[in-house]
Amino acid sequence: MRGFLPAMELQRPASLSEALQMLAAHTGRPFAGGTDLMVVYNAGKLRETRFLDIARLPELQGIRETPEYLDLGALCTFTELLAHPAIHRHFPNLVKSAKATGALAIQNRGTLGGNIANASPAADTPPCLLAYGAELELVSPRGTRVVPYELFHQGYKVMDLAADELVTRIRVPKPSGTSVHYFRKVGTRQAQAIAKLSLALVAQVADGCVANLRIGLGAVAPAPVRACHAEAVLQGQPLANLPVAVALEALLADMSPIDDIRSTAHYRSIVTRNLLAQALRTLSATGN
Amino acid sequence: MAERITLTFTLNGKPQTLAVHPMTRLLDMLREDLGLTGTKEGCGEGECGACAVLLDGRVVNSCLIPALQVEGCDLVTIEGLATASGLHPVQAALLAHNGAQCGFCSPGMAISAADLLRRCPNPNHGDVKDALSGNLCRCTGYTKIVEAVQAAARSEA
Amino acid sequence: MIGQSAIRKEGRAKVLGATQYTADVPVEGLWRGATVRSDVPRGILRGIHFGEGIPWSEFTVVTAADIPGKNRVASIVADQPFLVGIGEEVMHPEQPVVLLAHPDRYLLEAARKAVRLEIEPLPAIFDMEASLRQDELIYGTDNLLKEIRIAKGDPAPIWETAAFVIEGDYRTGAQEQLYLETQAILAFANTDENGLRITIQGSLQCPYYVHGAIAGLFELPADHVRVTALEMGGAFGGKEDYPSLIAGHAALLAWKSGHPVRIVYDREEDMAATTKRHPSRTHIKSAFDANGHLLALDVDFQLDGGAYATMSPVVLSRGTLHAAGVYRCPHVAIHGRALATNTPPPGAFRGFGAPQSLFAIERHMDICAQRMGMDPVELRRRNFLRLGDSMATGQVIREDLDLAGLMDRALVELDYDAKRKRFQTENAASPEVCRGVGFAVFMHGCGFTGSGEAKLASVAGLEALPDGRVSVLAASTEMGQGKHTVFAQVAAEALGLPIELVEVAPSDTSRVPNSGPTVASRSTMVVGKLIQDAAVAFRQGLIQQGLLHEPFTPEAFQAAVRAMLARSGSYKTYAQYHTPPQQKWDDTSYQGDAYPTFTWACYATQVAVDTVTWEVAVEDFVAVQEVGRVINPTLATGQVQGGVAQGIGFGLWEEVRMHNGRMANTQLTNYAIPTLADLPEIRVVFLENPHPAGPGGAKGLGELPMNGPAPALLNAVDFAVGPLRLDEVPMTPERLLDRAEEVARG
Fold first, then answer.
1. Which residue spans of chain A are classified as CATH 3.30.465.10?
2. Which of A149, A171, B119, C724 has its CA 20 to 30 A from that of C159?
3. Which CATH architecture has domain A5-53?
4. Do B138 and C481 touch (CB under 8 A)?
C-alpha cells in the first residue's frame, strides 16, 4: 500500500443537494464503488486527496423502465445490471460487457456511472452505451442537463462534465424492431482483464437493409468512441451485399490505437477490424 | 491526521464499533485494527481475490473498500465462515480434495465459493467459473478447487 | 501409508484462514522496514540525500557503511552486495541502496519516496545480444557469469553427410513466480553477555541459505543465528535465494533500531525487484539420416543472467543438461552461457533452466518432422532413449524406460489420432476457430545436479516426543507442495504407525539438521529417503533396546518411545546422504551421472485458435508421467495440475515487459497469470515405476510439470494454424498475429 492515509479525506454528504454544494465548494471529488480509485490510491498515484462518498445517494440508484427506454442510476453496479430482466431482454451487449468487467467482486462494487466518469478508454460498458445511443443526466447546483453520451468524452480523461456536476442517471433507448447486437472484448485473459480492445455494434434491420447502425469502440482511441466513418459506409446498405471492405477501411479513420503495456497499435488495429468483419457476418446472417 | 470516525457495523454476526480513519482500507482495518489476519493481501489492486470478504452478503475485495463504506453493513470474513459445529461445507471440501495447497488464496476462495453455493446451490461449471474467476490461485491449476466446490454442493444438496 | 491420499497435515488451518504467514504474526513493538532502490540501471553511487518534510530523527536508516561484516550475499559466487555503498557501482535498476525502518507504515512509505540517490550514470546493456557483443563490459572480462560445454562424439563430420540438417532458433521470456504471498521477513536482534544473536522468521525456502547469509553479514558464529521458515504462500523457486537479501536487510534494521523489524514487499516491489525465470535463446543444429534417426546435435544455449551470478551457474547447468531432450544421439555438442546484463538478477523458478532448453528441443523435433515429411509421433518413437542408451554426458539409462509407452498413453487419453484427422478436415474449410493437437515428451533430473548432493551431504532425522509420538527433523519447508504430509507418510510407513502419530517439526535451524534447500525436486526423493532410513533406525533402536517387539500396536510403540525417553532423556536418529557407488560425476568435463535419476513425461493438449483475435484457448490437457512410486496421489495430482497451469501461462500469456532494465508491467492486471476461466480441467495420469533412490520407490515431482506445456501448446497451435514460425514463448496473440502475417506476406 503506497497511498498516504494521513493526507486523505473521505466525507459522506447526507443528500444529493449537499453533495452538489460540496462539489461546487471543491470539498472533494466523487467516490462511488472505488474499484478504480482505490487501485490508484493503493499504488500511491492518486493525486487528489479529498473525496466525497456518494455511494448511498438514493437519487443515483435503481433501474426504471419506461416503454421507450431504461433509466439507470449512475450507482447501478454491474451485478444489479445483470440481475435486471429488462437489460437481458433489450440490451444483450450490456449484459456481455458487464459480465466481462473484472470478476464478480468487481461487478458487485463497480458502478455504471463510475465506469463512465472514470473515463478510461478501455472501460467495458462505454462502447455498448455508445452503440445503444445512451444519454447522460448531469446535475449541478445550477440545474439538470441531458447530454448524448457520444458527445461526453472529448479526449483522454476529458469530459463534458463541470467540476460541480455529477453523472446521476443514464438513459438507454430500447432498440425497436429487428435489431442485431454484437459485443466482443479482447483482453489479456478470459476474466479479470482490462480490454486490449473492444467493439460493440447495434443495428436495426428494415426491408433487408441496415436501417440504423451504431458502433462503439474501446481502447483504440483516447476515450471510448463511436466509429462514425465505418457507420456512414454501412448505413442503409443491403444486408445481402454489405460493403465490408470499404467499412473496414473506413474504420481506420475512427481509431488511433497505440502501443502500450497491454498490446500493440498494430494488433489493435487489425483485430478491431476483424471484430467488425465478424459483427458484419453476424448482421448479414440475420438477413437470411 | 484527518479525524477518525466511529464506525458501527456487524462483524461475523456480532455488533462492532471501531474508531478508524474513514479512508483506511477495509483490509487493513480487519488485519491491523481487529487482528483478523485470515483475510490476505495478495495484490492491493482488486485482482487476486485473496482479500475477499462478504459485505452485505456480496463478495467484495476488501483492499478496494474504504472503512467509511462499511458503516452499518453486515461483514463476514473467513473467521466467520466456520461454525461451532465445524467447517463450512466448502472449507471441508477444499480440505478433502486438496483444494488448498499453499493456502494463501484459500480464505478468499472459500468466501467466494460459500457465496456461490448460497446463491446457487447446484452450480454448473459455468457458474463456478463466473463465481471464482476473480480468485487467483498459483498452486492448483484450479481443477481440485472446482472438484471441491462441486462436492460441497452435492453434500449440501 | 505410501500410496495413500492422506489429508494435507496443515490443511485444516489453511481452509480456516488460521495459518499464520509471515505478515500475520503479531509482534510486540514491531517496526516496519522499507528499501530504497537505485532507479538507474548502471552507475556509480555518489550521494544519498534525505528530503525535507520527513521526521528523519524518528527513523532508523541503514546504508552500506553500517554493515558490520561482509557486504556480500553468500551464494555460489559471493558477488551481490546487500547494499551498494558510496563510490560503488550500481548494477541494475532495482538495486538496494538504503534501508529505512519506522513503526508507522504510511510515514515509512513517504520517507522512502523522499530519499534521493545521486548516481553518476554509466552506459548499460539490457539484452543477451548486447552482452555477447560486449557493447559494455559489465562483468568480469567477458560478461559471462558461467560457461559450460558438454561433448559427446564429434558432430562436425556429420553435417556433411547427413540426409537432413535442420537448424532452428528459439526464445523464451522471463516469467514471474507469482506466489500469492509476497516476500516477507521478520527479524529480531538481541545482544546478551555472549554477544549479538539474530533470529529470522520468514517466507523462505532454504533456512540454511539464509542462515549462511546472516552469519556472513554480521560475522557471527553459527549458533548465534536462528532461522525459521514459516508457512509459505507459495514460492516456486522465488523464495530460494532472494530471501537471503531481504533477511539481511531486516536484520540490519532490527540490529540498528533495537526493534523487531518486518519487511513485506508489496506486489509491485516484489514483481519489479525479485527474481524471475531466466530469459533464454537457443540455437539448435541437428542432423538426421534418411529414416529420421538423429545423428548429431549442436546446441548453443544462452541465458540472460542479469547483474549478478546468483543462481545462474546452476540454472545454466540444468538447462544444458536437459538441452538434448529425451533422445538418443551419438554426437552431441552443447554450449551453455549465462550472460550478464544490467537487469535485476533472475533466479530459481520451477524447472530451473530445463523449461527453456526443453521448449527449444521439443519445438525443434516437431519442426524437424515437418521438414522431413514425417509424423512427429513416429520421429520421436525412432529416437527415444531406452535402457542401456547413454545421454549427452555419458550417463547410461539404467532403468526400464518406456518413453514410447508414455507417449502412446498420453495420445490415447487425448484421442490424438482421431482428433488429428477431424481437425485437419475441419481446418481445411478455414473456419474462424481452428483446432489443433500437440504434445511434448520430456524429462526432469531429480535432485541436485552432478556432485551437488554429495557436497551437501544432507542430514535428516527423527525425534521422540514426550507423549510417545515421533517428530520428523528436516530443514525442508512447506510452500504448498505437501512436504509436511509426504514426510509424515514416509516416516509413518517406515515406523509402522498411523500418520497421526508422526509430526513434522518446524523448519527451525536451532532444531532441525541441514537437510538442504527445498529445491530441485529433491525433498521427497532425497530427504524423504533419509527420513525413511532414520525411521528404520528409530524403530530398530527401540527393538534392540528391548522396548518394542514386532508386531506392535501404535499404543505399544508410544509406550516404547516413552520408555526410551525415560531411560535416556532424548531419543533421535539421523541419516546422512551418501552418493550411491555406481553414480559418478566429473564437474570439470561435465561427464558422468548428472542426476541420480530422471522423471519422464508426455503432455498432450488440444487448443482452439481464434483467427479473429489470435487468442489461443486450451481445450484439453493430458499430463502422463512416470515419477517412480507416487506417495500421495491426491497431492501429487495437485502438484502436476498446478505446474501445468504455470506452464500454460509460460507458453501463452505471461510476459515480463522490460523497459531500460526494469519490469514495466508490475501489476497483476497487466502481468496475466491464468484464472479459472482460462484453464481446462487438467487430466493427470501416473505410470508407476519404483526407483531405489527414493522412499518407497518415489522420485522427485515438483518441477517436471513445468517443462512440457509450452512446447506441447505451440506444437498444437502450429497444427491448428501453421506452419508458422512459432519459435518463442509466450506466444501472445500479438506475436501469433505477426507470425501469421509473415506467412501471408510470403
1. 58-173
2. C724
3. 2-Layer Sandwich (3.30)
4. no
